[in-house]
Amino acid sequence: MEKRDIELIEKFSVVDEELKREVAEHSRFEEILNDLNKRAYLTPEEEVEKKRIKKLKLRGRDKIEEILVKYRNLQTH
């Protein structure tokens, strides 16, 4: 994530509950994936879960990006 995006998140997550929620969820998914990646072996169920979490994380990242576009536009006007 770019420095500018991090700054926007820090600034606006205080007042934007949706942004705050999406960022927290994204971080939680990142932690889950990090834990799964540390394992030497994943069961087939864990592999499926890993793929599901990756999709959810990506969907959340897209939502965060959508919200940040709004704030970028505010900053340029």
Count of distinct structural domains:
1
Distance between the termini: 23 Å
Instruction: Report helical residue fraction.
Output: over 70%
Strand and helix order: HHH
In one word, what is the shape?
A: elongated
* Rg, Cα atoms, Å: 15 Å
Strand content: under 5%
Strands, total number: 0
Largest sheet: none
Q: Supply the helix-strand structural class.
A: mainly alpha
- Low-confidence segments, given as residue ranges, are none
Number of helices: 3
Mean pLDDT: 94
Describe this protein with a few key phrases.
mainly alpha, 77 residues
What does this structure look like?
With 77 residues, the protein is mainly alpha-helical. The chain has one domain (19-76). It is built from three helices and no strands. The radius of gyration is 15 Å and the shape is elongated. The relative contact order is 0.15.
Q: Topology, pairings included?
A:
Elements: H1 3-12, H2 17-38, H3 44-76
Helix pairs in contact: 2-3
Summarize the structure.
The chain has helices spanning 3-12, 17-38, 44-76. The protein is mostly helical and 77 residues long. It starts with a helix and ends with a helix.
